[in-house]
Amino acid sequence: FSTGPFLLEKMIPNQEMILRSFADYWQGKPGFEQVSLKIITNPATRMLAFEAGQLDLAVNFPAQDAVRLKNRDNVQIVQQPTTRLCFLFVRVSDGPLADLLIRQALNYALDRKEIVQAVLAGQGGTVATSVFPQILSWANANLQPYPYNTQKAAQLLKQAGLRDTDGDGMLEKDGHPLVLNIWTYEGRAALKPVLELMQAQLKRVGVASQTRITKKNSPINQAIQRGQVQLSLQMWNTAPQGDPDFFLSEIFTSQGGSNFMGYQNAELDELVRKGKITFDQAERKQIYDRVQEIIYQESPVIPLFHQSLISAVRGDIEHFRSHPAEKYLISHKLRRKE
Predict the structure, then answer these.
(1) Pick from 167, 171, 174: which is nearest to 155 by CA?
(2) What DSSP assignment string belongs to 137-168?
(3) pTM for the complete prediction?
(4) Max CA separation in the chain (angstroms)
(5) Which residue, 172, 205, 182, is CA-closest to 91?
C-alpha cells in the first residue's frame, strides 16, 4: 500500500526504478502513469542522455552545462538552494593539521569565491561560512566568511614553524617537506574540479599536496581515521530533515559515527547533548550558534560552499520544483503540457 502519488513497480539495483501512478492518491491522480528513475553515475553521461532526449529531467551535473543549455527553447534550468555542503574533513588529532595555526592558514589560503565562480559557474552555489546555509534558520548569521588572504596564510604558516629552506617555493616542517594527502570520490560533478583548484590555491602559499579520487567515500573515511589522509573533500546534506542535530552529532561529537578527524571538544559535546533535549527553539538557536562558533574557530572541518541543486527539465514538462533537501523531485503535479 502507498500514501504517496506513486507505487514501486520494478527495481533494478544500481540501474533503474520504475514507478506507476497511485490513482487513489489523496491529493489527486498524478500527471504521469509511469515514471522511470534512471541511475547514471557519470555526470557527463547523464547530460549526454538528457540532450539526446532519453531523459526528461536531469540533476547533479556540471554547472557549466546549465550555462550552455539555459538559452535553449526546449530546456528549463531550475535552480534551488539546498542544505548540501561541500567541505573538507580535517585530520586534527595527529599529523601536521593537529596544529591550529596551519588549519587557520588553510582557511585563508582557499579562495572560495574563485571556486564558486570557476567550478559552479557562479550560479551553482554560495560561499560557505558555517556548516549550515543561510536558507536554514539555524545558521549562525554572525559569522563572516574567511577572506582569501595569502599574506595572512603565509604569516600563520610561518608562526607554525614552516619554512622554505631549500628555495623550491614549497614549505618544510621540522626539516621535512609538508605534503598534504587530499582525497575525494567520484559521483558528484563538482568534486574533481574543486580538488584540482584547491591544490593550485594551496601551492600559491607553498603548501604541497597529493590528490586521489576513489570510487566512493568509504575508503577515504578509513584512510583519514588511520591518519593516512589529512584532508577529505566531501559533500553532505547537513540537515536532511531541517534540524541541525544530525550533522553536528554525527561528525563533531567525540562519539560521532562519522568523526573521522579524531576531533574532541568537551564544550561542544555538552552543547550538542543539551540541544537534543531542549524544547525552547530560541534557546536551541543559541546553543547551535555557539556550536558553529567553535567549529569556525577550531576548523575540524573547512566549509567551502553550499550547493544549489540545478535541474535540467525538458521544456514540455510543467509544475516541476525541487526541495532544499534535494528530495521530492517527482510530485503528483508534475505533468507534460497538452
Answers:
(1) 171
(2) TTS-TT--PPPP-HHHHHHHHHHTTEE--SSS
(3) 0.87
(4) 74
(5) 182
